[in-house]
Amino acid sequence: MRSFMQIKIYRGKFIAYALSVVLIGLALGALTCAVLLDQWVGNSRNEAAGAFARVENSLQYDADRIEAFMQQVYSNSGLVSDIRSFLGNNAEGYLTSRLQGSHYNRPLVSFPDDMKSFLSNGGKGDVTQVSLHTEQEGNVVSFDSNGNTSFQFRLPNTDETFRETIQKGFVYHKKLSDPNQISRQLGEFRFLVSSDRIFQTVQNSHLDEAAAVSAAGDVYLIGGSGRSTEELVRRVVADGRAHGFLSTGLADRAYFVAFHSNEFDFRFVSIVDVGSLIRQKANVLLIVFLIVLAAMICVLLLIVYNLREDANFLRRIILSIGRAKTANFTLVSPARYRRNEYGMIARELDDMIHQLDRHIRTNYLLKLKQQETEMKALQNQINPHFLYNTLEVIRSSALVNSADYTSDAIATLGALYRDIVKNDNIISLGSELELLQKYLKLMEFKYPDRFYYQFHVESALMSLPTVKFWLQPLAENFFVHGFDPASEYNLLIVNGWEEEDRFVLEIVDNGDRISEQRLIEIRNKLASDDDAPVDSIGLRNVYTRLRFFYGVGFAMKIDNNEEAGVKIAVILSKEATNDVQAADRG
Questions:
Q1: Strand partners for 568
Q2: What are the extents of the domains in the chain?
Q3: Are 134 and 88 in contact (CB under 8 A)?
Q4: What pLDDT shows up at residue 83?
Q5: Which of 188, 226, 355, 431 could anchor a disulfide with 427, C-beta 3.0 to 4.6 Å?
Q6: Interatomic CA distance for residues 37 and 386, integer angstroms
Q7: pLDDT tens for residues 200-209?
Q8: Euclidean distance between CA atoms 434 and 429, whole angstroms
Q9: 481-484, long-range: CB within 8 Å, 24+ apart, which pairs?
Q10: In this structure, how many other beta carbons lie within 10 angstroms of the beta carbon of residue 107?
Q11: Entry pTM
Q12: Using one digit for the tens of pLDDT, what is the confidence trace for 432-466?
């Protein structure tokens, strides 16, 4: 790490990358923890919803049982008679009235026994007290946890026994009407369903703090720590929301969910302390932290590796420049170049120093000018037919080995080279188009199923005289600047037609477009008469040759197509072509 930290630009980059990685890691860690916390809170909410549903089902079941008991009472005249004897009497009066109303030929019906059998045993023991009231007093039948029955007679309706609180349970009120005269009310039944037995079914649920709250504000604690839980429950009821968060301290928060029972008029409240929940899930959060930390360390190590490699290449570049400045062209150990801009620069600098050393040695040891003269003489002795014969031998070998594709490529290359080295510098436009077609056919071999071309040139243009080999550089611009090897449809089209006073030849492709600013620069440089450099040497060369050949009757236009690619139009006036033909005949 020390190697690149000593370079200011890489030191700044590393600090920026490290801060970015830490911030992103913290953000991802916090987001993951928030998602997990939301999931855990959601699980607590679902657990509370399930507990509330079980309580509701139990209360509804008891309500149905009580309703079934009341129907049984009205369907049994003997049971109604015994209830009327029980109503408003003390124990002695009840027994006396029962005996007086009994018949020797009918079995004696007992309202308390029948009620105990139906509600206590069949009703799962949730009903712990049944009282029968007149306007002033009531008689009570109670069932303990063992199923034993106890009685209390003629208690005032204001007695503590009849006070309705959720700590005791839920009270169902049922009117007792005269079967013979429904509008006449004999008294009232009050069935007490024990809260202890109802909420016992949900005490084993995973509820940290839970309670039931009656409409009067009474609180029955199902789970929690006494007074503090009761205080939180009252805050939830006062808040009025179905769920949310409450502040329980300076930085502590609790999540609550409240369910309201419309039929039984109470609220079921469940509270989860967020701090306790996080402590319970500390192992999961620790794993998340370790994963995020490991990812951050891996990313930082990757950044350090890349910065260290780039710093090494920058040092080699600086070293190469220093060697060139001091004319030290001795070879150094070869470098392992990376495939990026630094690697390209380092490689080019090393090649430049090597070339400088070679040229200097050649200049001083072999006398460069003499060598150039000798080389030129040797070059003039080279027989082009050697290349033709060599290509023919390769083509024949490819045919023997059934490599038709290779054979066609070699044949096309040989024909193209033969036409290029011919001494004729002035040829017909048709011959120039044949040269272009051979070049494009080679490009088809190079990019099979990736490149296509089309010619649509009128016959009137075929006999026009022109200079040799100027269409190929225009097509080559497409392969250098506009061709996309990844695309399955690269197209180049050559159109040519005759107009009233001129001929137009157009080369169109579907490659990349040229920016408007760059297009204006190219047009200005081509139109100028000076020798200002143009990035595309081939384009400048073509423009200059055609301008000298055709004179003022020649024009070239470069435009972007509407959809994609570039369009180059060469315009020749008929007067200019006639002048060229006359000169050629002379």
A1: 507, 558
A2: 76-199, 291-360, 424-585
A3: yes
A4: 86
A5: 431
A6: 81
A7: 878 766 777 8
A8: 9
A9: 481/511, 481/512, 481/536, 482/509, 482/511, 482/512, 482/565, 482/566, 483/447, 483/451, 483/511, 484/511, 484/512
A10: 8
A11: 0.50
A12: 899 888 888 888 888 888 889 999 999 999 989 88
